[in-house]
Design goal:
Layout (H helix, E strand, L loop, with lengths): L17 E3 L12 E5 L5 E5 L2 E2 L9 H9 L6 H4 L3 H10 L3 H4 L3 E5 L5 H8 L3 E6 L3 H9 L5 E5 L14 E4 L9 H6 L10 E7 L4 H4 L3 H8 L4 H23 L5 H4 L16 H16 L9 H10 L3 E8 L1 E8 L1
Parallel strand pairs: 5-6, 5-8, 6-7, 8-9
Antiparallel strand pairs: 1-2, 2-3, 3-4, 9-11, 10-11
Length: 328
């Protein structure tokens, strides 16, 4: 943990400032130690340069497993394609010069696919995740001097309120136990006077609910992550081939392939065969494994933004259903 992060951290239980227990003088980065609330009632470990504000075992364990197994898969620096960058800039509407030198909060960072984009633009990125994916994120991006990784709970974010000019959460909130409350935790983190918030959701519409994954999830979400992953590792290559075959049928192919429960990016992303299989395994596990999967309607997320007092609200489709706004 870098010392400069300390001024933005708060005890998630009491809201108090945190102090480092017996810090070593002259050290700018802490590999291990303890953060202690001012009244001494709450203590949080720092392990592998990462403050930890949640129990080691929690509802997001499957995400920790998937991102540590696929640590680099979706990084643009690894795939060689600007897939994450294109999604990030299109969803947020921000420009690299907007976030350069600014504090940016990434809620649900996973292995750091979007944090990498913000870091490359020169932002000071606080990458938070509930799961052990933080370890994958740190391993991927630790070479960036402006990276700060935190393991924390979205329902009790361990930060000083209104301390981030830019906050985003992409591909995350629909996988939380209570999406309404998860979203409600984000606006308080956004700075007043023009701070910006962007998040996205699976779109709650008839087409979405017909996706094959919703027929299988009542079973697959109850299977242990290890068992499910082993099954998918054996069967995804076949399912992907079948999806590609159905997708090649003229006119109706795009509909037919949706009956196959596999993430097929053929023709959508410029990935080679190995990458197509790797992304298929990763995102099929991501479809079938999470304990929670709650799509939202456009009207619902717009109302959340209004209720939170944000302005200049945009709701549109860009990969997922995106909403963004500004805190005046």
């Amino acid at each position: 943990m870098k010392i400069e992060l300390l001024e933005r951290l708060r005890c998630p239980q009491s809201g108090q400032c945190l102090t480092l227990e017996t810090p070593a003088s002259g050290v700018d980065e802490i590999e291990s130690g303890w953060l202690v609330s001012v009244d001494g009632q709450h203590r949080y470990p720092i392990r592998n340069f990462t403050p930890r504000f949640v129990p080691e075992l929690n509802y997001s364990n499957n995400f920790g497993m998937q991102w540590n197994k696929f640590r680099q898969t979706q990084l643009d620096s690894y795939s060689g394609h600007p897939i994450s960058a294109d999604r990030f800039w299109k969803a947020t509407g921000w420009r690299p010069e907007d976030i350069s030198g600014q504090w940016v909060l990434d809620v649900g960072c996973g292995a750091g696919r979007f944090a990498e984009i913000a870091l490359r633009a020169g932002a000071k990125v606080v990458a938070l995740d509930h799961s052990s994916a933080v370890d994958a994120c740190f391993a991927n991006l630790k070479q960036h001097p402006n990276l700060h990784v935190v393991q924390g709970d979205i329902y009790s974010l361990p930060f000083k309120t209104e301390s981030f000019p830019f906050v985003y959460s992409l591909g995350v909130l629909q996988h939380t136990p209570d999406v309404t409350q998860a979203f409600a935790s984000l606006p308080p983190m956004v700075s007043r006077g023009g701070g910006k918030l962007c998040t996205d959701f699976y779109w709650k519409r008839f087409r979405t609910m017909l996706h094959a994954k919703y027929f299988f999830r009542p079973i697959t979400k109850r299977i242990s992550p290890q068992t499910l992953f082993a099954f998918l590792e054996r069967n995804v290559p076949f399912l992907l081939k079948l999806s590609q075959l159905l997708g090649s049928v003229p006119i109706v192919g795009v509909v037919l392939k949706r009956i196959i429960p596999v993430a097929d990016y053929t023709g959508r992303y410029p990935l080679n065969e190995r990458q197509l299989n790797e992304w298929a395994l990763l995102d099929t596990f991501d479809m079938l494994g999470p304990q929670y999967d709650s799509p939202q309607s456009a009207s619902t997320i717009r109302n959340w933004m209004v209720k939170a007092g944000l302005e200049e609200i945009d709701v549109f489709q860009a990969n997922l259903l995106v909403v963004r706004g500004v805190k005046k």
